[in-house]
Amino acid sequence: MAVIAIDFDGVIVENNFPSNEFDPYPAVLAKMRNLQQQGHKFILWTCREGHHLHDALDWLDEHDLMGLFESVNREPDNMS
Questions:
Q1: Which residue of 3, 23, 45, 52 lies most exposed, with the fewest beta carbons within 10 A?
Q2: Burial, 78: exposed, middle or buried (Cβ in 10 Å; 0-12, 13-18, 19+)?
């Protein structure tokens, strides 16, 4: 099992920072789901903070994608 830190802007979605309109990369999301099914874990690792971070998290939640991540910008509690 690997723990993979993955960025939001430019990796999961097109890099439109600081916009809160996101165009996802479906192939990346499909690969993440496949890797998760194989037992790998993801950390959302982003430089977004404040309302920009909340915009990204809200978008992930609205698209049922938060379940892909063990944590945001930190090592998951169950990984230490």
A1: 23
A2: exposed
Other C-beta atoms closer than 10 Å to the C-beta of 51 total: 11
d(CA 45, CA 26): 19
Q: What is the pLDDT of residues 56-72, one digit of tens each?
A: 999 999 999 999 999 99
How many Å apart are CA 12 and CA 8, to the nearest integer? Answer: 5
CA-CA distance, 78 to 23, in Å (whole number)? Answer: 31
**Residue 39, by phi and psi: left (phi above 0), alpha (psi -120 to 50) or beta?**
left
